[in-house]
TrEMBL record:
Annotated source species: Lupinus albus
Listed name of the protein: Putative F-box domain, leucine-rich repeat domain, L domain-containing protein
Xref: InterPro entries: F-box_dom, LRR_dom_sf
One Pfam family here: F-box-like
Source domain of life: Eukaryota
Domain F-box, chain residue ranges per copy: 22-63
């Protein structure tokens, strides 16, 4: 009896996992990645479920460690994604967005994660408070799908996107529905059409990053002349080109001239790097202005000289 009594007292003094304070559980769960959070721990007990739904865990939904299993194809959308890969992403989105309960303000996708129209629409409907979207791959997203998503993101402030053939449709939607939009990062060349569209639809843009791509001098001048509210411009590691008469047609500019620097002097930050000894400049040059991020260190694509755009 005496031994049994001791054991009962001992057992009563042991604190069970399910009895931990929610705040402590949340701190523990913050150490987990998205795969652990969606693996079923929310079903252990009601207190764990409550902790799993805490907004602190879901301000950022980071899927940058997840890639599609795909092959390149010659016709649009130029990639074919394996069905199992698609189902994995759909499952992660459904569980995450259910637990997140509309708390997500930052959403990050890998540059080799090819989201479908249906997945984007499903996500947009459940992230009405989204402020930052990092979505480098749009191959499988149609114009209608992206426009529908943008219309639901009234609080969107920041977008990381690829270069696209028809920029006005997305930029016009942003101008109409995202009144607080302030920063844009383009992963790929920004041509005169894209720059003109920026000037037409987002003239109050504050931050623009065009790093690690080909950039023509006339495009740079258009940006500096037209975006009068621009405060930060990043053209680090860009191949700066200009059009010249035949037979050469174009040439690389090795140094930014005084006329450009004078136009950029009004900016709070004009970030440049055109150093032949710089590793990132060398890589941009070797890849002819369209960096093959998959060849380099994991996570390198996330970097940016603009602090607010770096991941």
């Amino acid at each position: 009896m005496w031994k049994a009594s001791i054991m009962e007292d001992y057992d009563s003094n042991i604190r069970r996992w399910e009895d931990l304070d929610t705040d402590i559980l949340v701190k523990i769960f913050q150490l987990l990645d998205i795969f652990d959070l969606t693996s079923g721990i929310a079903h252990v007990c009601s207190s764990w479920r409550l902790a799993c739904c805490d907004p602190l865990l879901w301000k950022t939904l980071d899927l940058s460690m997840l890639r599609s299993n795909f092959i390149k194809i010659p016709l649009e959308p130029f990639v074919y994604v394996d069905g199992r890969s698609d189902r994995t992403l759909t499952r992660l989105l459904k569980i995450s967005l259910s637990l997140g309960r509309q708390s997500i303000v930052t959403l990050i996708f890998h540059f080799n994660l090819y989201v479908s129209d249906e997945q984007l629409t499903y996500t947009a409907e459940r992230c009405p408070k989204l402020k930052r979207l990092v979505l480098p791959a749009w191959n499988r997203i149609k114009i209608t799908g992206m426009c529908k998503a943008i219309r639901g993101w009234n609080e969107l402030e920041s977008l990381t996107m690829p270069c696209i053939a028809n920029p006005p449709y997305i930029l016009e939607e942003i101008s109409m529905h995202c009144k607080n939009f302030r920063e844009l990062k383009i992963m790929g060349p920004c041509d005169i059409y894209f720059a003109s569209s920026l000037a037409a639809f987002l003239p109050k843009l504050k931050v623009l990053s065009l790093r690690c791509s080909t950039l023509y001098k006339d495009v740079l001048i258009l940006i500096l002349d037209s975006l009068q509210h621009l405060e930060v411009l990043n053209i680090s590691h860009c191949i700066l080109m200009e059009v010249v008469p035949p037979p050469n047609y174009k040439r690389i500019i090795r140094e930014i001239d005084m006329s450009i620097r004078q136009k950029a002097s009004r900016l709070r930050e004009f970030l440049t790097c055109m150093d032949g000894t710089c590793t990132m400049c060398q890589r941009t040059s070797a890849d002819e202005g369209l960096v093959r991020w998959y060849k380099y260190e994991e996570g390198l694509w996330k970097k940016d000289e603009v602090r607010s755009l770096s991941l």
